Amino acid sequence: MSTDLFNEIRVLEDVNSLSKHEKLVQGVINAIDQKMISRGDMLPSVNQMIKEFNYARETIVKAYKDLITRGIIESKNRRGYFVSTDDTGQHLKVCLLLFAFDTFQETFYQSFRNHLGENVHLDIFFHHNNPQIFETIVKSIKGKYGMYVVAPIPQPESVELLEELPMNKFLMVDRFIKLKEPHSYIVQEFENSSYDAFAALADRIKEFDEFIFYFKPSSAEPDEVLKSFKTFVKDYKVKGVLKNKYEPGSIEPGKVYFTIHNLELWQMLKDTRSKGLILGKDLGILSHNDDNVKEIIFDGITTFSIDFAEMGNKAAEFVLTKTPVKHVMKTELFRRNSL
Asked: What CATH class does 2-83 carry?
């Protein structure tokens, strides 16, 4: 197998338009296309390639890195380089690691996927805010992709894990955590934007007796939103109530309900209808993260949110151009019937 691969590379030695590293890359691609090597096969080590072609180590390493970026081969720690696909037509292999596949995450994904184009291979993973799952995934993807787009868990342990990834091929999305090395990010800001949304709705909130926020400690919910809620109810002298979760059937008139979770929102709306209450009059509901459904149901649910489709487009643009980016998405308030 190595002999066939070496021969394919030697065929290109007289092609003056190709650099040495490009000859190595094209030789591997040609060998795959001609079925000389296939997915799962181990490639010659860097030392073997040096011995065979007398190329500089940096040249061979650059070629292998180029093939990894394109998703054609992968590096396995202490084991070497392996063919990862028989599809040599793809130009880039991208890893996308998100919290979960909620509605707004799907909006981000669809926009991201569409903007990348057909020649990019995309693998998507979910960590569900579970540190063990997050660690396992990050360690398993290292060295296998040309670009890494990651929504991190905001905890100190995430820093060391993420810094094992190549920062020039890394994009942080959704949540921001500070890393030691400079890196690109396209993220949300939660504390000031949440407070501004509450403040803009203060007159409507004060028409009701209580402002109830369902917040689960040690969950995927941003702590900054909790902080802004506490500051708002104090500054505006609103009766604020914190609860861990919404209990089905507990909806009452005279209150404003705020939840980040769509499943809680759907249950609230179901209970509102079953009890014959009028949303926006008998009670108010505020939701986080906008989508098309919230614009339509019950004549509209009031939300504050970033544009997840725009975030997806911006993330894809970074992947395609590799232009460093440091961008905080703008949060907008969408005032509708529910509050």
From this structure: mainly alpha
Return the half-sphere exposure (C-beta side, CA atoms, 13 A cut-off) of residue 19: 8
Task: Report the C-alpha gap between 299 and 334 in whole angstroms.
Answer: 13
Hey, what are 66's tokens?
């180029």
- Alpha carbon separation from 3 to 8, 9, 50, 136 (Å, rounded): 9, 10, 14, 37
Q: Is the pLDDT of residue 16 over 80?
A: no
Q: What is the distance, to the nearest Å, from the Cα of residue 61 to the centroid of all Cα atoms in its chain?
A: 29
Closest CA to 99 of 158, 184, 164: 158
Q: What are the extents of the domains in the chain? A: 2-83, 92-188+308-330, 191-305
Q: Please give the helix or strand (H or E) that residue 80 lies within, else none.
A: strand 80-83
Mean pLDDT score across all residues of the chain: 91
Say which DSSP state 102 is in: -
Closest by CA to 205, choosing from 243, 231, 253, 239, is 239
pLDDT band at 252 (very low <50, low <70, confident <90, very high): very high
- Fold classification of 191-305 (topology level): Rossmann fold (3.40.50)
pLDDT in tens, 127-146: 999 999 999 999 888 877 87
3-state secondary structure of 36: coil
Sign of the alpha-carbon dihedral angle for 305, 307, 312, 317: negative
Nearest to 300 by CA among 282, 279, 271, 322: 279
pLDDT at 253 over 70: yes
**For residues 289 and 278, is the Cβ–Cβ distance under 8 A?**
no
Nearest to 108 by CA among 69, 150, 146: 150
pLDDT at 242 over 80: yes
C-beta of residue 174 within 8 angstroms of C-beta of residue 185: no
User: Do 60 and 24 contact (CB within 8 A), yes or no?
Assistant: yes
